[in-house]
Every structure is written in C-alpha cells, then in structure tokens.
Amino acid sequence: MEAEKFNLETVEEYLEAEKTRDPKHEYLAGTVHAMSGASRRHNVIGGRIYSVFVQRMGKGPCEAYLADVKVRVRTKAGVFFYYPDVMVGCDPTDRHEYYLDRPLILFEVTSASTESTDRREKLLAYQGIASLRHYVIVSQTKRAVEWFRRAGDGWEKVRLTGPDDALDFPEISVSLRLEEIYEGIEFEEAGR
C-alpha cells in the first residue's frame, strides 16, 4: 500500500485561492475543508441577526459582517480561518480586507452537518480569541440559543428559549430578542 502524498497549504496560498474558490473553504492549520451550502432557513436566521446589528449600531467604530468575512484564530496547533454566520468587530486597527483577528461577537447558526463542530472545535478555538466577549450558537430547528459570554477569566453559558428572552451586548448597547431572530420561522411541534 502506498501512502498518498498531499501538501499543506500555507496561509498565503489559502487566502489567495479563497478569493475564487466555490464553495468557500475553512482553513485548519494547513488543511482546507469545503463548506456545504446553507439552507434558506439558515440564511434567513443569519440575515435577521445581521440586520438587527446594522440597524442598532449605527455609525461608529463597530461593523457587522455576514457569512463571507473570515475570522482568523491563532492557536498552539496553528492558524485557523472560519466563516462565522455573523460577526461584529469594533477594533479600528483590525483592518485586513478578508478577515478579522479581533472580533467582539461571533454567531454560528447550526445545521446537522455543522452542529458538533460549532459546539466543540469552534467553541474551543473562539474562546481563545482575546477580544471575543460573546459566542452565540443559534439552532435552526427549534427556538434555542446557547450564549457563551466572557465572565472574568472564564466563560459562562446561558441557554435561551423563550421568544422574549434576549441577548444583551452592553459593549455596543445592542439587545436582540429571540423573537427577532426567529420572526416568521415555524417549527414542527414535538411529537408530530
């Protein structure tokens, strides 16, 4: 049996190739992984979250980004690039054209193919970003949000399920109710 040879991509090769790749790819310390397409529901939920930030933040140092801007994460294992569904950055020195190094808030809308990655790999990687204060995992199959927020030297997890439950981001004076995230989204009732 002959071992298959493959070359790891450098960060520079990845960033250049990603400008024209379809579909998008995430970068994990030299390996490149294609992303699957999002469902309409996934896209609507992400779009609602994004639009709330755009409307409520107004003009200022913070910007919201939807799905196509990467976040770069540096770990002991290497450099990673992910595409969060929604990202908010406020650091005026974080100026790379295609990614942020210092986001304030990250959202991932789960799907069957990404849920375990969002809850394990990305949770661990994102919590290593010094600037990050909030990581939010949003279900698209039921009204449920897991909100990881920095608390002192650690993180606390808050689970929200009620339509009037809200995520509060005091750093930018924005609040987001679950009713706004899931407006118009219907869920199958349990037991059907």
What is this entry, summarized?
The chain is of the alpha+beta class and 192 residues long.
Written description of the protein model:
This protein has 192 residues and is of the alpha+beta class. The protein has a single domain, classed as tt1808, chain A (Alpha-Beta Complex), CATH 3.90.1570. It is built from 5 helices and 13 strands. The strands form 3 sheets. Strands 3-6-8-9-10-11 form a 6-stranded mixed β-sheet, with helices on both faces. Strands 2-1-5-4-7 form a 5-stranded mixed β-sheet, with helices on both faces. Strand 10 (145-151) and strand 11 form a beta hairpin. The longest helix is centred in the N-terminal third of the chain and has 18 residues, at 40-57. The chain starts with 10 loop residues before the first helix and ends in an 11-residue tail after the last helix. The model has no long low-confidence stretch (mean pLDDT 92).
Task: Please name the defining characteristics of this protein.
single chain, 192 residues, alpha+beta, tt1808, chain A
